[in-house]
Protein backbone atom coordinates (compact mmCIF):
# COMPACT_ATOMS: atom_id res chain seq x y z
CA UNK A 1 0.00 0.00 0.00
CA UNK A 2 2.90 2.40 0.71
CA UNK A 3 4.11 2.14 -2.89
CA UNK A 4 0.60 2.78 -4.17
CA UNK A 5 0.27 5.85 -1.97
CA UNK A 6 3.62 7.24 -3.07
CA UNK A 7 2.78 6.61 -6.70
CA UNK A 8 -0.59 8.33 -6.36
CA UNK A 9 1.06 11.36 -4.79
CA UNK A 10 3.61 11.41 -7.60
CA UNK A 11 0.75 11.63 -10.10
CA UNK A 12 -1.17 14.26 -8.13
CA UNK A 13 0.57 15.74 -5.12
CA UNK A 14 -2.58 17.41 -3.82
CA UNK A 15 -4.94 14.47 -4.30
CA UNK A 16 -7.25 13.90 -1.33
CA UNK A 17 -6.49 10.82 0.73
CA UNK A 18 -10.12 9.75 0.30
CA UNK A 19 -9.67 9.68 -3.47
CA UNK A 20 -6.39 7.77 -3.23
CA UNK A 21 -7.97 5.28 -0.82
CA UNK A 22 -10.77 4.55 -3.31
CA UNK A 23 -8.23 4.09 -6.11
CA UNK A 24 -6.26 1.64 -3.98
CA UNK A 25 -9.28 -0.22 -2.67
CA UNK A 26 -8.42 0.69 0.93
CA UNK A 27 -10.24 2.47 3.73
CA UNK A 28 -9.48 6.14 4.21
CA UNK A 29 -8.60 5.55 7.87
CA UNK A 30 -6.06 2.86 7.02
CA UNK A 31 -4.51 5.00 4.30
CA UNK A 32 -4.32 7.99 6.66
CA UNK A 33 -2.35 5.87 9.15
CA UNK A 34 0.05 4.75 6.43
CA UNK A 35 0.43 8.33 5.24
CA UNK A 36 1.21 9.55 8.79
CA UNK A 37 3.79 6.79 9.19
CA UNK A 38 5.53 7.76 5.95
CA UNK A 39 5.55 11.40 7.07
CA UNK A 40 7.40 10.42 10.24
CA UNK A 41 10.01 8.83 7.96
CA UNK A 42 10.46 12.07 6.05
CA UNK A 43 7.81 11.97 3.32
CA UNK A 44 6.94 15.36 1.91
CA UNK A 45 5.25 16.62 -1.24
CA UNK A 46 6.85 19.70 -2.73
CA UNK A 47 5.42 22.18 -5.21
CA UNK A 48 8.02 23.09 -7.82
CA UNK A 49 8.46 25.63 -10.53
CA UNK A 50 9.09 24.36 -14.05
CA UNK A 51 12.18 26.45 -14.92
CA UNK A 52 11.92 26.21 -18.72
CA UNK A 53 8.31 27.39 -18.61
CA UNK A 54 9.44 30.56 -16.85
CA UNK A 55 12.33 31.32 -19.18
CA UNK A 56 14.96 29.98 -16.78
CA UNK A 57 17.91 27.79 -17.73
CA UNK A 58 18.79 24.65 -15.81
CA UNK A 59 22.41 23.67 -15.24
CA UNK A 60 24.11 20.59 -13.90
CA UNK A 61 27.50 21.32 -12.37
CA UNK A 62 30.16 18.67 -11.92
CA UNK A 63 32.58 20.06 -9.35
CA UNK A 64 35.94 18.68 -8.21
CA UNK A 65 37.22 19.70 -4.79
CA UNK A 66 40.53 19.58 -2.98
CA UNK A 67 40.81 16.77 -0.39
CA UNK A 68 38.72 17.58 2.66
CA UNK A 69 36.95 20.54 1.02
CA UNK A 70 33.87 18.93 -0.53
CA UNK A 71 31.74 19.25 2.60
CA UNK A 72 32.28 22.98 3.04
CA UNK A 73 31.77 23.64 -0.68
CA UNK A 74 28.55 21.62 -0.65
CA UNK A 75 27.20 23.47 2.39
CA UNK A 76 27.98 26.84 0.80
CA UNK A 77 26.14 25.83 -2.38
CA UNK A 78 23.20 24.46 -0.38
CA UNK A 79 22.63 27.90 1.12
CA UNK A 80 22.06 29.39 -2.33
CA UNK A 81 18.36 29.72 -3.25
CA UNK A 82 19.06 28.86 -6.90
CA UNK A 83 20.40 25.35 -6.17
CA UNK A 84 17.85 22.52 -6.18
CA UNK A 85 19.92 19.46 -5.24
CA UNK A 86 23.50 18.68 -4.35
CA UNK A 87 25.11 15.27 -4.01
CA UNK A 88 28.53 14.02 -2.99
CA UNK A 89 30.12 11.27 -5.09
CA UNK A 90 33.33 9.63 -6.28
CA UNK A 91 35.37 9.16 -3.13
CA UNK A 92 34.14 12.36 -1.54
CA UNK A 93 35.98 14.79 -3.83
CA UNK A 94 33.31 15.24 -6.54
CA UNK A 95 30.05 17.18 -6.19
CA UNK A 96 27.01 17.35 -8.43
CA UNK A 97 24.85 20.44 -8.21
CA UNK A 98 21.68 21.35 -10.11
CA UNK A 99 20.75 25.03 -10.32
CA UNK A 100 18.78 27.51 -12.39
CA UNK A 101 19.67 30.91 -13.82
CA UNK A 102 17.28 33.56 -15.11
CA UNK A 103 19.56 35.85 -17.11
CA UNK A 104 22.87 35.79 -18.94
CA UNK A 105 24.30 38.22 -16.37
CA UNK A 106 23.27 35.91 -13.53
CA UNK A 107 24.80 32.93 -15.33
CA UNK A 108 28.10 34.68 -16.03
CA UNK A 109 28.35 36.10 -12.51
CA UNK A 110 28.01 32.63 -11.03
CA UNK A 111 29.97 30.48 -13.48
CA UNK A 112 32.73 32.92 -14.41
CA UNK A 113 33.25 34.85 -11.18
CA UNK A 114 31.81 33.38 -7.98
CA UNK A 115 32.44 29.66 -8.45
CA UNK A 116 36.05 29.94 -9.70
CA UNK A 117 36.91 31.94 -6.55
CA UNK A 118 35.38 29.38 -4.16
CA UNK A 119 38.04 28.08 -1.73
CA UNK A 120 38.67 24.35 -2.10
CA UNK A 121 37.12 24.11 -5.57
CA UNK A 122 39.64 22.86 -8.15
CA UNK A 123 37.51 22.58 -11.32
CA UNK A 124 33.99 23.30 -12.58
CA UNK A 125 32.22 21.59 -15.48
CA UNK A 126 28.90 23.28 -16.29
CA UNK A 127 26.41 21.38 -18.42
CA UNK A 128 23.25 23.02 -19.74
CA UNK A 129 20.22 20.72 -19.51
CA UNK A 130 18.65 20.82 -22.95
CA UNK A 131 15.63 18.61 -22.37
CA UNK A 132 14.38 16.85 -19.26
CA UNK A 133 12.68 13.54 -20.01
CA UNK A 134 11.19 12.85 -16.57
CA UNK A 135 9.11 15.94 -15.94
CA UNK A 136 10.31 18.26 -13.19
CA UNK A 137 12.77 16.84 -10.69
CA UNK A 138 11.61 13.43 -9.60
CA UNK A 139 13.95 12.18 -6.90
CA UNK A 140 12.76 8.68 -6.26
CA UNK A 141 12.57 5.48 -8.21
CA UNK A 142 8.87 4.58 -8.10
CA UNK A 143 7.51 6.88 -10.81
CA UNK A 144 7.14 3.93 -13.17
CA UNK A 145 5.32 1.60 -10.78
CA UNK A 146 1.53 1.52 -11.31
CA UNK A 147 -0.69 1.50 -8.24
CA UNK A 148 -3.92 -0.36 -7.65
CA UNK A 149 -5.45 -3.06 -9.83
CA UNK A 150 -6.51 -0.74 -12.64
CA UNK A 151 -4.83 2.60 -11.84
CA UNK A 152 -8.07 4.50 -12.50
CA UNK A 153 -9.77 7.54 -11.04
CA UNK A 154 -12.74 6.12 -9.17
CA UNK A 155 -14.62 9.42 -9.30
CA UNK A 156 -15.11 9.43 -13.06
CA UNK A 157 -13.77 6.08 -14.25
CA UNK A 158 -11.09 7.69 -16.42
CA UNK A 159 -7.41 6.65 -16.26
CA UNK A 160 -5.33 8.78 -13.93
CA UNK A 161 -3.19 11.29 -15.84
CA UNK A 162 0.42 10.46 -16.69
CA UNK A 163 2.98 12.66 -14.91
CA UNK A 164 4.73 13.65 -18.15
CA UNK A 165 4.11 17.24 -19.12
CA UNK A 166 4.65 19.00 -22.46
CA UNK A 167 6.04 22.50 -22.25
CA UNK A 168 3.89 25.14 -23.97
CA UNK A 169 5.77 27.81 -25.96
CA UNK A 170 6.84 31.13 -24.49
CA UNK A 171 7.83 32.03 -20.92
CA UNK A 172 5.13 32.75 -18.37
CA UNK A 173 5.30 35.80 -16.09
CA UNK A 174 4.58 35.51 -12.37
CA UNK A 175 3.11 38.24 -10.17
CA UNK A 176 3.67 38.76 -6.45
CA UNK A 177 0.74 36.53 -5.50
CA UNK A 178 2.03 33.70 -7.69
CA UNK A 179 5.45 33.94 -6.09
CA UNK A 180 4.03 33.95 -2.58
CA UNK A 181 1.89 30.92 -3.44
CA UNK A 182 4.82 29.05 -4.95
CA UNK A 183 6.99 29.84 -1.93
CA UNK A 184 4.41 28.23 0.36
CA UNK A 185 4.01 25.19 -1.88
CA UNK A 186 7.79 24.74 -1.92
CA UNK A 187 7.55 24.23 1.85
CA UNK A 188 4.47 21.98 1.74
CA UNK A 189 2.85 21.00 -1.54
CA UNK A 190 -0.21 19.70 0.33
CA UNK A 191 -0.85 22.84 2.37
CA UNK A 192 -4.59 23.42 2.78
CA UNK A 193 -6.31 26.22 0.87
CA UNK A 194 -6.97 28.30 4.02
CA UNK A 195 -3.24 28.21 4.83
CA UNK A 196 -2.32 29.25 1.31
CA UNK A 197 -4.97 31.96 1.38
CA UNK A 198 -3.58 33.39 4.63
CA UNK A 199 -0.03 33.39 3.23
CA UNK A 200 -1.01 35.14 -0.01
CA UNK A 201 -3.71 37.49 1.28
CA UNK A 202 -6.24 36.01 -1.14
CA UNK A 203 -9.46 34.08 -0.67
CA UNK A 204 -9.37 30.25 -0.84
CA UNK A 205 -11.36 30.31 -4.08
CA UNK A 206 -8.88 32.77 -5.61
CA UNK A 207 -5.96 30.57 -4.52
CA UNK A 208 -7.63 27.54 -6.07
CA UNK A 209 -8.01 29.38 -9.38
CA UNK A 210 -4.35 30.42 -9.24
CA UNK A 211 -3.28 26.84 -8.60
CA UNK A 212 -5.28 25.53 -11.52
CA UNK A 213 -3.94 28.27 -13.79
CA UNK A 214 -0.30 27.61 -12.89
CA UNK A 215 -0.74 23.86 -13.41
CA UNK A 216 -2.61 24.34 -16.68
CA UNK A 217 0.14 26.63 -17.95
CA UNK A 218 2.81 24.07 -17.09
CA UNK A 219 4.51 26.35 -14.56
CA UNK A 220 3.83 24.25 -11.45
CA UNK A 221 4.29 20.59 -10.69
CA UNK A 222 4.52 18.44 -7.58
CA UNK A 223 7.21 15.98 -6.60
CA UNK A 224 7.41 13.35 -3.89
CA UNK A 225 10.43 13.47 -1.60
CA UNK A 226 10.95 10.18 0.20
CA UNK A 227 14.27 8.51 0.91
CA UNK A 228 14.42 5.26 -1.12
CA UNK A 229 16.45 3.56 1.63
CA UNK A 230 13.24 3.23 3.67
CA UNK A 231 12.02 0.86 0.96
CA UNK A 232 15.25 -1.12 0.70
CA UNK A 233 16.92 0.84 -2.11
CA UNK A 234 20.39 1.68 -0.83
CA UNK A 235 22.37 2.56 -3.95
CA UNK A 236 21.89 5.81 -5.86
CA UNK A 237 24.07 6.64 -8.83
CA UNK A 238 24.52 9.16 -11.61
CA UNK A 239 24.85 7.80 -15.14
CA UNK A 240 26.67 9.76 -17.83
CA UNK A 241 25.99 8.40 -21.31
CA UNK A 242 27.43 9.08 -24.74
CA UNK A 243 24.68 8.39 -27.26
CA UNK A 244 24.69 8.63 -31.06
CA UNK A 245 23.22 12.07 -31.90
CA UNK A 246 20.18 10.69 -33.69
CA UNK A 247 19.28 8.43 -30.75
CA UNK A 248 19.43 10.85 -27.81
CA UNK A 249 15.69 11.50 -27.55
CA UNK A 250 14.79 7.84 -28.03
CA UNK A 251 17.23 6.72 -25.33
CA UNK A 252 16.12 9.54 -23.01
CA UNK A 253 12.47 8.51 -23.34
CA UNK A 254 13.40 4.86 -22.78
CA UNK A 255 15.32 5.72 -19.59
CA UNK A 256 12.43 7.84 -18.33
CA UNK A 257 10.15 4.80 -18.63
CA UNK A 258 12.43 2.65 -16.45
CA UNK A 259 11.22 2.56 -12.83
CA UNK A 260 14.85 2.65 -11.63
CA UNK A 261 15.44 6.07 -13.18
CA UNK A 262 14.41 9.13 -11.19
CA UNK A 263 15.80 11.72 -13.60
CA UNK A 264 17.02 11.78 -17.20
CA UNK A 265 18.01 14.71 -19.39
CA UNK A 266 19.83 15.60 -22.58
CA UNK A 267 22.80 17.82 -21.80
CA UNK A 268 25.73 19.66 -23.30
CA UNK A 269 29.28 18.40 -22.87
CA UNK A 270 31.20 15.22 -23.75
CA UNK A 271 28.28 13.13 -22.44
CA UNK A 272 25.03 14.09 -24.10
CA UNK A 273 22.67 12.30 -21.71
CA UNK A 274 22.67 12.19 -17.91
CA UNK A 275 20.46 10.17 -15.59
CA UNK A 276 20.06 9.36 -11.89
CA UNK A 277 19.01 5.89 -10.78
CA UNK A 278 18.08 4.10 -7.56
CA UNK A 279 18.86 0.42 -6.94
CA UNK A 280 18.74 -2.13 -4.14
CA UNK A 281 22.48 -2.78 -4.44
CA UNK A 282 25.45 -3.31 -6.73
CA UNK A 283 24.00 -6.51 -8.22
CA UNK A 284 20.87 -4.65 -9.34
CA UNK A 285 22.96 -1.84 -10.80
CA UNK A 286 25.10 -4.32 -12.75
CA UNK A 287 22.01 -6.09 -14.08
CA UNK A 288 20.46 -2.78 -15.07
CA UNK A 289 23.55 -1.60 -16.95
CA UNK A 290 24.16 -4.96 -18.59
CA UNK A 291 20.62 -6.01 -19.48
CA UNK A 292 18.50 -2.86 -19.62
CA UNK A 293 20.71 0.01 -20.73
CA UNK A 294 23.17 -2.13 -22.68
CA UNK A 295 20.42 -3.27 -25.02
CA UNK A 296 19.34 0.25 -26.02
CA UNK A 297 20.44 1.30 -29.52
CA UNK A 298 22.90 4.13 -30.00
CA UNK A 299 24.69 3.99 -26.63
CA UNK A 300 28.44 4.39 -27.12
CA UNK A 301 29.67 4.55 -23.51
CA UNK A 302 28.41 4.81 -19.92
CA UNK A 303 30.11 6.31 -16.88
CA UNK A 304 28.70 5.61 -13.42
CA UNK A 305 29.21 7.78 -10.33
CA UNK A 306 27.65 6.35 -7.14
CA UNK A 307 26.16 8.97 -4.81
CA UNK A 308 27.66 8.87 -1.33
CA UNK A 309 25.46 11.49 0.28
CA UNK A 310 22.69 13.89 -0.68
CA UNK A 311 23.31 17.34 0.75
CA UNK A 312 20.25 19.10 -0.65
CA UNK A 313 17.22 17.92 -2.59
CA UNK A 314 13.97 19.26 -4.04
CA UNK A 315 14.36 23.00 -3.62
CA UNK A 316 13.58 25.57 -6.32
CA UNK A 317 13.35 29.28 -5.81
CA UNK A 318 10.09 31.06 -6.44
Radius of gyration from CA coordinates: 20 Å
Number of helices: 10
Fraction in beta strands = 25-35%
Strand order of the largest sheet: 2-4-3-10-7-9-8-5
Shape summary: globular
Class from helix and strand fractions: alpha+beta
End-to-end separation in angstroms reads 33 Å
Mean pLDDT: 84
CATH topology annotation of the domain at 229-312: Alpha-Beta Plaits
Please describe the biggest sheet, giving its number of strands, its sense, and whether it closes into a barrel. Answer: 8 strands, antiparallel, barrel
Helix content: 25-40%
Poorly predicted residue ranges = 136-165
State the CATH architecture of the domain at 229-312: 2-Layer Sandwich
Q: Give the total of beta strands.
A: 10
The fourth-level CATH homologous superfamily of the domain at 229-312 is Lrp/AsnC effector binding domain/regulation of amino acid metabolism (RAM) domain
The CATH class name of the domain at 229-312 reads Alpha Beta
What is the N-to-C order of secondary-structure elements (H for helix, E for strand)?
Answer: HHHEEHEEHEHHHEEHEEHE
- What is the assembly state of the chains in this entry? single chain
Amino acid sequence: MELGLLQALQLDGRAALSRIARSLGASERTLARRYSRLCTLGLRVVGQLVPARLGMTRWLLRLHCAPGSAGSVARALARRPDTSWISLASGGSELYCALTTSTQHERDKLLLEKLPRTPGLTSVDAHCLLRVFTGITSTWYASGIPFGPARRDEENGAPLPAPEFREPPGPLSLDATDRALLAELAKDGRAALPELAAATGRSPSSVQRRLEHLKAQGALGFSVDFAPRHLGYDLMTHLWLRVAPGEVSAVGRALAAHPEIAFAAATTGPHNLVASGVFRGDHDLHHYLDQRVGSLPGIQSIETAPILREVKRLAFRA
